[in-house]
Every structure is written in C-alpha cells, then in structure tokens.
UniProtKB/TrEMBL annotation:
Residues 3-118 form the Response regulatory domain. The modification 4-aspartylphosphate is found at residue 54. Signal peptide: none annotated. One of its GO terms (biological process) is phosphorelay signal transduction system. Keywords: DNA-binding, Phosphoprotein, Transcription, Transcription regulation. Residues 146-211 form the HTH luxR-type domain. One of its GO terms (molecular function) is DNA binding. The keyword Transcription regulation applies. It comes from the Bacteria. This is DNA-binding response regulator.
Length: 218
C-alpha cells in the first residue's frame, strides 16, 4: 500500500483528493493537514510514503514544509499548484519536492504521478516545466550555476540530460536517440549518480540552471 498524507488549507480540496485516491486499491490516505506545520507533524508521526502538498497555506507554507519534510527524510513530496504560484513551486523543487502537478489535473494523472513518486521516480510535466523555467531560470538569459559541473558527463549523457530537461520519458528519449529503453535507464542512473542528484526533477533544474538546456530552444 502507498500511504499518503493530503495537505491543503481548503477542506473541499482535501475531500476531493481523498475520494480520488481512496478509490484506488493500492493507496491509503492515512492523514490530512490544513497547513504546513500540521503536515510536518503528521509526516513525522505517520511516516507516509508521499505527502501531497498544497503551496499557499496559513501558519507555514508548503515550500518551507516541503524543505523540512525532505530534510528529515520522513516522506517524498508531490506539490500541487496553479500557474499563478510558479515562483513557490520553483522554490519547492529546489527544496527537494519530487514533482509538481496542477490542481486541475485529471484524476488518473494524479494517481499515476503519485505512484511514480512513491516508487522513487519524479514527476516532471513538460508544459508546466517549460513555463516555470521560462519565467524563473531562463528569464535573464544567464546561467545560474557553473556549467563545469557537467564536465563529468559523457557526450551521450549530456544529450540524455537535455531530453530529460524537456520532460521526455525514458521511452521517448530512447526513440529520439535510437537507443533501447534499458540503455536510457542506465544513462539516467549514471547522470543522477555523477551529479549527485536525487531524481529527474533535480536533473531538470540543474540542466536549465547551468545553461545546458534553454527555455524555448528545441
């Protein structure tokens, strides 16, 4: 069973998430919180697999709550957002969130994303990632981190990282580069290991921050 804590300051949203997730045979909503401080306490007490985290909340916002939960190692965090909260989501990703979804996402997408995060993967939505990074990484046109960090990668690994940054799945990367999916998985694993990254979300952020990938460039 995937044990989940739902965090949102709107009770109606929590009820909706509980209904969608509770209908799944492999998902158990073990707790609910209305603010970030409660989320931290529940994560520590219940040790869920995933915390479904709202961003803007009273007492303590979802960004700070995400950072503290990830630092404590009590759960992985999947952030729910709207476009007008992009800046908060970018901060949450830097703080260790394993992905983000829009609140109006389809129920089946929410379920599959939550399962992916629980299994140790990360959720990177191409459209949301592009808008997010266009605004907060690529806006000034100047890399935010030293590209020399990527010197440990082979040319093929750099190609794979660029495609990860575009939001492509392993299968899509394999088709693009004419490789097997197993080979792509191996490349992804090596990229994460060499760059000391937790998951694909951190890989996406690093690719844009170093200028390897640029918003609006195909």
């Amino acid at each position: 069973m995937i044990r989940v804590v739902v965090v949102d300051d709107q009770e109606l949203m929590r009820v909706g998430f509980r209904m969608v997730l509770g209908a799944q045979a492999d998902i158990d909503v073990v707790g609910e919180a209305g603010d970030g401080a409660q989320a931290i306490r529940l994560a520590e007490e219940l040790r869920p697999d995933v915390v479904l985290m709202d961003v803007r909340m009273p007492v303590l916002d979802g960004v700070e709550a995400t950072k503290r939960i990830v630092e404590a190692g009590t759960a992985r965090v999947l952030v729910m957002t709207t476009f007008d909260l992009d800046e908060y989501v970018y901060s949450a990703l830097q703080g260790g969130a394993s992905g983000f979804l829009l609140k109006d996402t389809q129920p089946d997408h929410l379920v599959s994303a939550l399962r992916a995060v629980a299994s140790g993967d990360a959720v990177v939505s191409p459209s949301v990632t592009r808008r997010l990074l266009d605004r907060f990484v690529g806006g000034g046109g100047k890399p935010m981190r030293d590209a020399a960090e990527l010197d440990v990668l082979t040319e093929r690994e750099r190609e794979v990282l660029v495609l990860i940054a575009k939001g492509l799945s392993n299968l899509e990367i394999a088709e693009t580069l004419f490789l097997s999916e197993a080979t792509v998985k191996t490349h992804v694993g090596r990229i994460l290991s060499k760059l000391d990254l937790r998951d694909r979300v951190q890989a996406v952020v690093l690719a844009y921050e170093t200028g390897l990938a640029r918003p609006g460039v195909s």
